[in-house]
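Can't paste images in this forum, so I'm doing it all in text. The chain is below; anyone willing to post the predicted structure tokens underneath?
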Amino acid sequence: MVALPWSLRARSLAKARRAFLRADPEGLHDFRVALRRAEATAAALGEEKIERRTRSLVRSLSPLRQLEIDRGLLARLRELGLVGDNLSAGLEARWVAEYEGDLREAGRLARSGRARRLERKLRRLARRRRGPGDSLLRLEIEWRRLERRLAPPLENASDRRLHRYRITVKRARYLAEDLAACGVSGLENRIEHEKELQDALGRWNDILLFRERLEKTRDESEKRGSVGLVLELDRLIGVLETTVASARHHALTVAGRFARVLPFAEARA
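Text version of the structure:
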């Protein structure tokens, strides 16, 4: 029982890394998620080196993942007619070189000794024998600690506060899934709701960071004197203000509904 979370983490990380190296459409996303899950398990079970290594790998992959999301959002806005062909082509031309460079670097990282050593360490932990009660208890203690922090933020909470809340929701869900895999019953409904909340917060975060990239591109264009591009970007950034606000409001609404459906004090009480 105790080895099961490590066994799951080792298998999912190896599978996701191979999928990324094969250039599967969701390979990068799955690779980062597998690392995030390993980080959450390691933090709960006191494996600090694993926690640090996985966090470092995730951070190395984050710029590429965000650029992948941004290019997808740009394509979607073009389909909706909110971005003209000239602006879309101009932005894509600027971003594609950066994307290809980040992709090559991410490929080197995925093939590196760092990634392979991490997989071997997870496999060793999966083979290690320890009293099942201790590790299961530590998983549950950390999960409960995270659950107590899931009271929804206020409507006027800062973006930084909402981002921290998003990370806590994600970690709580991952540990709940670890516990469920270890045979703890009664968590299915909570996991389902946390997934819904994580998705809503993720959509808000994606749009927010997309707008921030556009703002950075707009400032760079102004410095180069590209007046036409600056005006087009100003218009698009203005449109996205409403979209970001709407995504934020929806995420907070889902958080409030989650709190009413599954009060945190009752988590496996």
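The chain has nine helices and no strands. The mean pLDDT is 91.
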